[in-house]
Amino acid sequence: MAELSTPSRFSLRRLRNLPLVPIIILLVVFIIPAFFAQWIAPHDPYVPNLRARLQPPVFFGGTWEYPLGTDRLGRDILSRILHGAWYVMAVSMIGIFVGVVVGTTLGLIAGYVRGRFDSLVMRLVDISLALPAMLLALALAAALGASFLSVVIVVGFALWAYFARQVRAEVLLLRDSDFVARSLVAGSSHARILFRHILPNVVNTIVVLATLQVGIAIMLDASLSFLGIGIPRPTPAWGLLVSDGRDFIATDWWIAFFPGLAIMLTVLSVNMIGDWLRDALDPRLKQF
Amino acid sequence: MNSQTKKPLLEVQDLKVEIKTKVGSFVPVNGHSFSVHEGETIGIVGESGSGKSMTASALMRLLPKHVAKITEGSVRLDGKELLTLSEKQMRKVRGAEISMILQDPQTSLNPAFTVGSQIKEALRLHAPGPRRSLRSRAIDALKAVKVAAPEQRIDAYPGELSGGMRQRVVGAIAISCRPKVIIADEPTTSLDVTVQAQYLRLLRELQEETGMAILFITHDFGIVASLCHRVLVMYAGRIVESGPVGKIFANPAHPYTEALIATVPSLSGNQGRLRTIPGQPPSPAEKIVGCPFAPRCDYADARCRSEAPPTVLANGDSEHTTSCWRAVNQ
Q1: Are residues B227 and B241 in the same domain?
Q2: Mutant choice from B85, B102, B110, B113 vs A, greatest count of A C-beta within 10 A
Q3: β-strand B8-21 against B230-235: which pairing, if any?
Q4: Do the chains contact at A186 and B112, CB–CB below 8 Å?
Q5: What pLDDT does residue A96 have?
């Protein structure tokens, strides 16, 4: 008997090209601050210190006391960025979760049953993609008042259509595949086919898409905050920090620069990780 | 095998399937009647589009919804009428009493699950049991289809197996609940010739062990000759000839059958060019007047083109029927 090679689908080989630099940046700028800001931030992010107003960063005439400088109320920029990470993460994660659940469910059913329900869902997708998220955010902020909830709803609404469209497209292919027919022939019900046979085959797509959407969610959240229709002050959401520094950009540039840098580094590294994940989980490489 | 002494497992009467599309309706299965007995293999032969696979889907009641419909007839499995069962009841029949092997082993297994979990799924649907016994029954099913080292293969993903091996696994799933009837829809077309021969031998051995009836859909008369007891020859949605393999090969009564047999290349002698049947089968949307094969038939006369031939006994043999005016005239 020849020995059987059983290469697991999640072999170490796939993990070899881990994008280390983006992962480290993400950990340092985003993930660790999000969970441990309380312990690593040198100052309280909310308490003003008027004697230390508008201190420049350390290598630009400032001191190590305030490494990234202070804002016009004397609050430590570094501490505010560190504390803000948690809000950014909460909004983007919950928002994407909402988008994934809504989009995947509708996409699965639409692709499987086709017909009228499918047309309805796809028109909703078209509408949702045509409607600017900002407009919805303004409307929601006007109706409900800007809050954590309204931001999550806006993010979820901005993203669900991408998931619905992608999942539906894959389900359309999968539902006519022979393994679905084979399972029907064995006596499976449609619910079983959908959740046991089709869903596992679209999970990779959902994971990759969700990762790539993290960047979009963070940008959206930052834009909403910047416009003042995101999470309300005094929460140090990153978009708010950028917005705070807007009036001082010519003189005290660090107030807006460092939060902006944090947003850019986070989005960039998340996108790079998403790209890597897409290659690593490519269904075409996986299947045969 | 003598079909008279065994009881009929599957009896099909006047089965008619209609397909409705935007360009009109047509009838891919037009009044089929046949029966399959225990331990018997029936070959269904015909060109692409002759309604072979539609017949299979109709028997499983898995016709594409909204498009195709069974309009007439009866399908009795072991005395039980299938066409009046509810979808839920039918689900219990599928896989358990009548099962199917599909054409392409490359795609009929879900790439995301191990072979074992897919065999166990079929078992769980019809004969649930504790985890450990499911696994050992799945291993037994793999053993039954002669998969080497089933204890290891059961944890393999379909992508890790060869085409022949995968088709054995599909076979294992189909027979795992011991169905009375198996429909094999061209199960060997995508396998190479040596693997194909092994697979056919395996099917025959399984049949001898279990006494199941096999409906073997193919376009290859060579396979029919080596595997089947009886043949149904289909053309344009109709059964144009049926009877025991030996008699049909020795004495084909329908010109289409004759032409099909002539296309099988033989190994002896100088063949020259391979034989083909000139012309095309009628498009399903075409309105057929007279015998559907008449335009391609060497013997067709005026009546063939104007009047559909009845189904009659060929050569006065009660097991052998055909629908051709030449047989009527005899």
Answers
A1: yes
A2: B110
A3: unpaired
A4: no
A5: 94
Whether the CB-CB separation of B320 and B243 falls below 8 Å is answered with yes
**Sheet containing B238-244, strands listed edge to edge, beginning at the edge strand earlier in sequence:** B98-101, B181-185, B213-218, B41-45, B230-235, B238-244, B317-322, B312-314
Tell whether B195 and B67 lie within a shared domain.
yes
**Vertex A78, ends A74 and A82: CA angle to 5°?**
125
- When pLDDT is cut at 50, 70 and 90, the band that residue B2 belongs to is very low
* A6 in contact with B, Cβ within 8 Å: yes
pLDDT at A73 over 90: no
Domain boundary among B141, B157, B178: B178
Digit-coded pLDDT (tens) for B67-109: 888 888 999 998 889 999 998 899 888 888 999 888 877 788 8
Q: Which two tokens stand for residue B197?
A: 């021969």
Q: For chain B, where are the alpha helices, taking DSSP H only?
A: 52-60, 87-93, 115-126, 131-144, 150-153, 163-175, 193-210, 221-227, 245-250, 255-263, 302-306, 325-329
Q: Are B150 and B161 in a shared domain?
A: yes
pTM for this model (two decimals):
0.74
Residue B6 shares a structural domain with residue B89: yes
List, for residues A238-259, the tens digit of each pLDDT value.
988 888 888 888 888 998 999 9
- The pLDDT, as a whole number, for residue A12 is 52
Owning domain of residue B39? 1-97+180-265
Q: With contact defined as beta carbons under 8 Å apart, do B58 and B15 qualify?
A: yes
Among A residues 7-46, those touching chain B with beta carbons less than 8 Å apart: 7, 9
Q: Is B91–A286 a contact, with Cβ atoms under 8 angstroms apart?
A: no
Per-residue pLDDT band for A47 (boundaries 50, 70, 90) equals: confident
Give rounded-to-5 percent helix, strand, coil for chain B: 35, 25, 40
Domain map (residue ranges) of chain A: 22-31+73-287
| Domain A22-31+73-287 homologous superfamily, CATH | MetI-like (1.10.3720.10)
Claim to verify: residue B28 and residue B125 sit in the same structural domain: no
Q: Do both B9 and B156 map to the same domain?
A: no
**Looking at the structure, do residues B48 and B192 belong to the same domain, yes or no?**
yes
Q: How many domains does chain B have?
A: 2
Q: Is the preceding peptide bond at B150 cis, omega within 30 degrees of 0?
A: no
